[in-house]
Design a protein that fits this description.
With about 270 residues, this protein is an alpha/beta fold. It is built from eleven helices and twelve strands. It has a six-stranded parallel beta sheet with strand order 4-3-1-2-11-12, sandwiched between helices. A four-stranded parallel beta sheet has the order 8-6-9-10. It has a two-stranded parallel sheet with strand order 5-7. Helix 2 crosses helix 3 and helix 8 runs parallel beside helix 9. The radius of gyration is 18 Å and the shape is globular.
């Protein structure tokens, strides 16, 4: 069985890179909805419709399990999809689930009352659409008491990364960290709430300071997926990977190769 990994653009490649390293024998199909990227400035309904269409494309390609490697899609569409759209024999997971588990030190399925956790002051860096959903705050509130989350919408960062302009991306990160610190001077932890942001984790860490714990998603998602597949041994794969895009395959292939610094070839979805 292939595991589908979906993102509006190239950010989900950070997730793919980590899960391939952790699960080298698993088969993956990556789909980038490049023609409609970025999702971070779209409405919730628009994001939902696009995410459903992309997930169905991966189901049609033979995936029983799809990871929404896009925080915007996870925040705006995942719960609605799980409650009213996902077929019974399929599974759709979001990338912020393992992040919430790590931050609250409890499993997603733990429905006991919320309790106090060690980390009380959390900075959230995400796209404008993810911030607008307040999904991180909602899911944290289900599990933890008294956690103060200060969100910073990081406009322009994803576009700069997708265009390969890392100098601009780093400058924007520092600007957004400065803006966050004016609202929350001393965060204990920072959530990188976009799968593009692991590429700039060192920049976030440097701007925030060594005393701030920076939570990035790629490794957490890889461990979560490995645990899931261990509990579902029937869902084995072949070790192959395919890359699909709704955009121009040649252009996306060039950008993806720069993004991960290894050759990647996309074909039309």
């Amino acid at each position: 069985m292939a595991v589908g990994i979906f993102d509006s653009g190239l950010g989900g490649l950070t997730i793919l890179d980590a899960v391939q390293a952790r699960l080298p024998d698993q088969q993956f199909i990556y789909l980038a909805d490049s023609a409609n990227a970025p999702y971070g400035v779209r409405t919730a309904d628009d994001i939902y419709d696009l995410t459903v269409a992309a997930t169905q494309r991966l189901f049609d390609a033979g995936c029983d399990l799809v990871i929404l490697a896009c925080n915007t899609a996870s925040a705006a569409a995942l719960r609605r999809m799980q409650e009213g759209w996902v077929p019974q024999d399929k599974r759709v997971l979001g990338v912020f689930v393992p992040l919430i588990e790590a931050l609250t030190e409890r499993q997603w399925g733990d429905n006991s009352p919320p309790r106090e956790v060690a980390t009380q002051h959390v900075a959230l860096f995400a796209t404008p659409a993810t911030v607008a959903t307040r999904a991180f705050q909602r899911e944290l509130a289900f599990r933890a008491i008294g956690v103060d989350v200060e969100a910073q919408a990081c406009g322009g960062v994803v576009d700069a990364i997708e265009e390969g302009d890392m100098i601009l991306a780093e400058a924007l990160v520092r600007s957004h960290v400065d803006a966050l610190r004016r609202k929350m001077p001393e965060p204990q932890a920072a959530i990188l709430g976009c799968t593009h942001y692991p590429l700039l984790k060192d920049t976030f860490q440097d701007a925030l300071g060594a005393n701030v714990s920076v939570f990035s998603q790629a490794d957490l998602v890889a461990e979560s997926l490995a645990d899931y597949l261990l509990r579902h041994p029937d869902k084995s794969g072949t070790g192959d990977a395919a890359f699909l895009t709704t955009g121009d395959p040649a252009r996306v292939s060039d950008r993806a190769t720069q993004f991960l610094r290894r050759p990647l070839r996309f074909t039309a979805a």
